[in-house]
Amino acid sequence: MANLVAVQPKQASFSALPSCFSDFNGARLVSSLQYKRKVYQPKGALHVTASSSKKVLIMGGTRFIGVFLSRLLVKEGHQVTLFTRGKAPITQQLPDESDKDYADFKSQILHLKGDRKDYDFVKSALSAEGFDVVYDINGREAEEVEPIIDALPNLEQYIYCSSAGVYLKTDCPPHFEVDAVDPKSRHKGKLDTENLLVARDVNFTSIRPVYIYGPLNYNPVEEWFFHRLKAGRPIPIPNSGIQITQLGHVKDLATAFIQVLGNEKASKEVFNISGEKYVTFDGLAKACAKAGGFPEPEIVHYNPKEFDFGKKKPFPFRDQHFFASVEKAKSLLGWKPEFDLVEGLTDSYNLDFGRGTFRKEADFSTDDIILGKSLVLQS
User: Which residues contact residue 43 at a Cβ distance below 8 angstroms, ignoring those fewer than 6 apart?
Assistant: First the structure.
């Protein structure tokens, strides 16, 4: 029998983490970068709205996206249960979050321990508890989702975290929600899940982020650059460095997840969610430097085909143009990102890497291979 665990309920308090204003906006690179960091000033609190109080299940939710989403859900008065294997702490205190606010939040989170791939357990546990809404943050395959649907025949909404990686590569970016998808994508399981939700006539909403960044990010998107900037090392970037990509702040993503909850306009819809502006690889390196108060970095371009890196990944982004339109979410949901690029990177740096916390130790081994050959060629 599944056990839901909670501590004394209180009213949670949530305020947006502070962030810094910036004159840098996405792909618009200014020529005179200011290296002296600005004073870190807080912005206004997030303003979100949602439907009446719901019994919400989050599949996953202990890392990154779920950490911010669960706080917003609790603030909105929903009963939140995290379904996890229990191998990681169920909650964690956010940087700059007071002990009281964290204790209030923690006391309201319920936990359902289990393996989502144990389909019989999922069916019995979820049937016994009953939930109004499911947020599926870590679902990768359709077969992981079907038992949840079976267990909750009266489910009001299934909100799924998909990926913009499902789109077929195109010569005419950005990607729109109606664009062709790639059946051979490494995110094929997410496509299969979206198709399952359609076939089962579930009231679903699918969110397709591009690259997500922000405090507590376990994918070394910005951390990769911060490690090199802190060490005073050159930034090795593949090919020309003018490849265009797109980043979305985790807090903006969490807000989007809240805005689709109980929203009729989000019924059986797919939304791209990311930042409004696009940025080149070179521009991203400069933006990270500006956010962390570092000098403008030395950038070294290289041809990846000239190297054998084995199983190591020398660069954290796919070496291509990759960005998506967020106009549908803006027009249909009224959603709008709070953070521009440097502003968001500053938020990430000040609340994470700049405090000396990061997910992975620096590994410059592939850099040394690239730079060693580059120096030989230059000499």
Answer: 16, 18, 19, 21, 338
Q: In residues, how long is the chain?
A: 379
- Write the CA distances from 305 to 4, 280, 370, integer angstroms: 52, 21, 11
User: How many other C-beta atoms can be found within 10 angstroms of the C-beta atom of residue 346?
Assistant: 28
- pLDDT tens digits along 254-270: 999 999 999 999 999 99
Cβ contact 86:93 at 8 Å: no
Residue type, 196: L
CA atoms within 13 A on the CB side of 359: 15
CA distances from 45 to 42, 213, 276, 369 (A): 9, 19, 20, 45
CATH architecture under which domain 19-378 falls? 3-Layer(aba) Sandwich (3.40)
Residue 116 is which amino acid? R
Break the chain into its structural domains and give their ranges. 19-378
Q: Is 5 helix (H, G, I), strand (E, B) or coil?
A: strand
pLDDT in tens, 28-47: 323 233 333 443 343 433 33
